[in-house]
Structures are given as structure tokens and as C-alpha cells.
Amino acid sequence: MILGLMQDVPLLTTNILTHAEVAHGRVEIVSRTVEGRVHRYDYAGLARRTRQLARALQGLGVKSGDRIASLAWNTHRHLELFYGVPGLGAVLNTVNPRLFDDQIVYVLEHAESTVLFYDRTFAPLVERLADRFTTVKTFVLLSDAEQHEPGAVGALNYETLIGAQSGEAFDWPRFDENAGAFLCYTSGTTGDPKGVLYSHRAVVIHGLAAGLASAFGLTAFDVVMPCSSLYHATAWGLPFIAPINGCKIVLPAEKMDGASLQELILCEGVTFTGGVPTIWTMYLDWLDQNGQGVGDLKRVIIGGSAVPRAMAESFKTKHGVQVLQIWGMTETCPLGVVATPTPSVTALGEDQVDEIIWTRQGRLQFGIELKVVDDDGKECPRDGETSGALMVRGPWVVKRYFRKDADAIDDGGWFDTGDIATLDEHGFMRITDRAKDVIKTGGEWISSIDLENIAVACPGVKIAAVVGIPHPKWEERPLLVIETHEGRTVTKEDVLGFLQGKIVKWWTPDDVVFAPVPLTATGKIDKKTLRKAWNEHLM
Ligand code: ADP
After folding, report:
1. Is the CB of 195 within 6 Å of ligand 1?
2. What is the pLDDT of residues 356-384, one digit of tens each?
3. CA dist., res. 527 & res. 11, Å (int)
4. DSSP per-residue codes, 226-284
5. Could you tell me the residue range of the domain that residue 396 belongs to?
6. What order of strands is seen across the sheet that includes strand 195-199?
7. Is residue 290 part of a domain?
8. Looking at the 3D structure of the chain, how many domains does it have?
């Protein structure tokens, strides 16, 4: 071997911030605040306040490798933590506030976070649990100074804290790009949440790859509004992807209802947004009810759960908006695949393109390898038909969970995602189920995702959830749980009639029930709770 003779510049998140300040310094960042204001500055302003924050963190004694926690919405202050904390070589532990109390305590304790930054929304939560946060030494409330309330934890005020520091030039430390930057925990639907420690290198390469034309295709003309939470796998990397590409950023805080999103989309000229399907169900409903259009919005990325075909169709036909489905997980930073057309797919005609783009989770992107294997670990053919366990490998895939002794990958470096999928000859991947949600009936499998996707298109249906529940003869049979749109009446006969002809007969749910559908902390249908609630229904 002979070493290359190029510059050994580590890939660090501060490089992104510095680039954005120098190249796109006047590009705006608009944020709602939890206090209900709209805050405006630009990348130069972000960089300046991040330097103030870095000095303040040093003043609190924060050192390289320390874990610093946040309980916060999508705001400019949270964005500053995204750069200030990792910039010093410390690790930002973004805690999902929708977890149960015990899980929140578990995450903070497991991460051993020493400082906790929180929005005022979470003051009651913090006060309730503070005694159980044994490693946290300092509490900082992310709020305007005038509205500061230190509460029983004696919180410092964020604005006062950073306001005391200079925003002038700061010597960001240069360190190994493999250093940890973000610590994100899975939602722990089975067992305790598991910590995934993203390195600077993973975050930067993921950010570069996600912006490519084959993926999000962002340019400096785009206005990006992340509606996936900053606390959930770094809002799909958008806080890095946007500045790399010089995009204006719009942050909605916690206000993800139709009217609030619409106001930002129209007033700020949002061209690109993304979030889980439930947000877009609400948004599309709101547009229908109010007879409004989407302004400059061009593309919406949707993932976290399968995109209902009806949703993608609505966006396209009513509003001219392209839906890009993505698949990923906390363990993959989180982007795995994105559904964008290719020449070979386009040659099949527009209907086929829509069919493929809307019903596949996405296609292979450079950097992430995928394979599907059978029960013996043998690779399945890439024929779009044969399903198996989905395995992934790449520079932004987890190797080992935080503070675990054993690696989470096999000898070949592959990580088992827990999803069941097919791959086809065009490089497209389709998730048929999560391994634990597959319905096993009389030795055959039914895809709960496919059934849900068809059922949700039935008029009046808002959410369709399918779970396998014990059956005396067939081991398990599908039960369809439906939540209807407000004020709509839908009957079992309507739904079964709608499914007829669209599915093979033996997939027909054994019953259709009408009830509110519970969601998990990451906005997915909570199948564990549903299975428990309806466990005896067919026995
Ligand atoms: P959690 O902590 O809730 O598991 P993750 O975001 O890590 O949150 O969840 C990842 C899982 O979400 C994937 O393994 C997959 O099952 C599901 N998922 C993500 N995107 C999609 C999609 N586009 N279609 C179907 N399932 C998806």
C-alpha cells in the first residue's frame, strides 16, 4: 500500500456550520418559538450564537466526550445545541419526550448526561423526574429571559447563559472524525431503549449523500421545513443536509397541525418538507376542509411508516406535489433508501412510475448496501417477489449499541433491521412488514402493511391498522382496526366491500372493528398495544 497524499481533514459537524456561515451567511433560518413568537436570523446568526453557546458550555465545565441532553422541539435553540455540543467534542443526547417517564429516566441515566436543556413545555416533566436524574448537574431552560422560571430544579436561562458570552471567532477543536456526536435512542417498543451513537463522520457523510439528486435533490433554491422531530434520529439529518446545500430552514417548533404548517408553508415559501404519515393526513385534511393550495411546496418526504398510496396520489393530483418515500431507522442515521425515479423505471410509463415510487420504500443509494436473506441466512433473489430479513451495511449504520459489550452486526458486517422486505431488479426495496408484525396464518404470511395500505384508501377511513391475533384454527388471523375521519360513518360492510377484489380472499380480515388507533412515541401504529387489547377477540 502507498498512502494517498491528500489533506487529512476530519469530517466534523462544525465544518458544515462554518461552510454555511461563509458560503450562505445571509440565508434565513425562521423558527417558531415555544413562547409563540417567530424568530428570524440567518446562518451567520446561527454560527454566532453557536459560538456563544460553546463558550457557555465550557463555562459549565463541559468537556469532550460528555453527554448533554435535550428535551426540545424543532426550534432555533435546539438547532444551536445540534452544532454547539458536538462542536466541542461532547455528545448531544436528544431525548424523545413522548417516551414513558421510566424510559426517559432510563435514557438520561444510561447516557449519563450531565446537563439537561429543556423547553418550557417539559418543565412539569423535568420537575416530576428531576430526583431520578442522578447524573444531571445543571438544568437549562430554553426560553426567552423575560419569561424564565427556574422552578424547583433551579434552571439557568439559555438566553442569559449564552448572552454573557462573546460570539466572536472561536477556535473549534479539531479531533478524530470517529468521535461521537449524537446519541439517539430507539423507542424501545420491545425492552429498554437502545442507544445509537452517531459519529461526526457518519453524520457528515449521511448529510452529503442525502442531498444528492438521486435522494432529496436539494439546492440553494430550496426552503426546507423539517416536520420530523429533531429528537428522533436528528430529523432525518435535515439540520445538516440543508446547510450543506445552502437551503433556507423553517422550524415549526411543536406546532404540526394543519393550520400552523400551512401558515409557514405559504408565508416562508417552503418548497420541501418531510415527516411521518400522520402529519400529512392532518395537513391534507386541513387543505380539503379549507379549500387551500400548497403555495411553492414541491416535494414531501415521508417515512417512519409506510406511505399510504392514497396520500401520495392526493398530493400529486390535487396539489402537484411529489411524494418521496424514504425508509430508515434510528440505527441508520436514519436514511436507508429514498424512492426516486430512474431511467429504467421511467421507461415503463407514468402509471408504472407512480406505482413503483409510491409502493416501494425506496431505491439503493450510494453508501448503504442492502440484502434480503432467508431463514438460513442465504441471500434471496432480487426479483421483487421473494421476501426475507432485510440486512444493511454502510458507513452510517450502527456497529454496536452504546454501552453494550457485543457488536450488533454479523461477521460480514451486516445489521439485521428487523424488517421483512423484497428487492427488485431496479434496485427498489419494499417493506412487507416488521418481522414481529407479520401475520402468520396456516403456514402462510400476510403483510399487515399491504392490507393497511389498501384499507386506508376506503372513503371515510383515517387510520387503518392490521394486527394478527390468535385464532383457534389458523394460529393467527388479521383483525382490521379502523379510526374514521371526524364525523364520518363507515361500516364493516363498507370496508369489506372495498377490499373485495383488491386482495386475495384468504387475506380478508376476520373482523373489522372501529376504535381509536394508538400511536407509539415515534408516531407509528402501536401494534403491541392493539394485539394486547384484541388478543381474545377471535378465540
Ligand atoms: P423506532 O424507534 O420507533 O423503531 P425508528 O425510526 O428507528 O423508530 O423505526 C424504524 C422502523 O420504522 C423501520 O425498521 C421500519 O420498520 C419502519 N419504517 C421506517 N420507514 C418506513 C417506511 N417508509 N415504510 C414502512 N416502514 C418504515
Report:
1. no
2. 999 999 999 999 999 999 999 999 999 99
3. 40
4. E-S-TTTGGGGGHHHHHHHHT-EEEE-BT--SHHHHHHHHHHHT--EEEE-HHHHHHHH
5. 319-409+417-434
6. 156-157, 138-142, 115-119, 67-71, 91-94, 180-185, 195-199
7. no
8. 3
- How far is the centre of ligand 1, averaged over its atoms, from the C-alpha of 397 (Å)? 14
On whether the CB atoms of residues 286 and 277 are closer than 8 A, the answer is: no
Is 380 in the same domain as 461? no
Encode 331-367: b = buried (16+ Cβ within 10 Å), e = exposed: bbbbbbbbbbbeeebeeeeeeeebebbbbbbbbbbeb
Ligand 1: residue whose CA is nearest its atom 27 = 305
In the structure grid, which three cell numbers stand for residue 145, read together? 429571559
Answer yes or no: is pLDDT of 491 > 90.
Answer: yes
Residue 440 designated active-site: yes
Please identify, by atom number, the ligand 1 atom nearest to the C-alpha of residue 302.
23
Is 378 one of the catalytic residues?
no
Instruction: Write the CB contacts of 148 (distance below 8 Å, at least 6 apart in sequence).
Output: 141, 155, 157, 159, 160
Pair 26, 169 in one domain: yes
Q: Tell me, what's the pLDDT at 486?
A: 87
- Is 189 a residue whose pLDDT tops 80? no
Output the nine-digit C-alpha cell for 301.
418526504
Query: Is the pTM value of this prediction over 0.90?
Result: yes
Q: Are residues 348 and 465 in the same domain?
A: no
What ranges in 461-512 are assigned the alpha helix state H?
A: 492-499
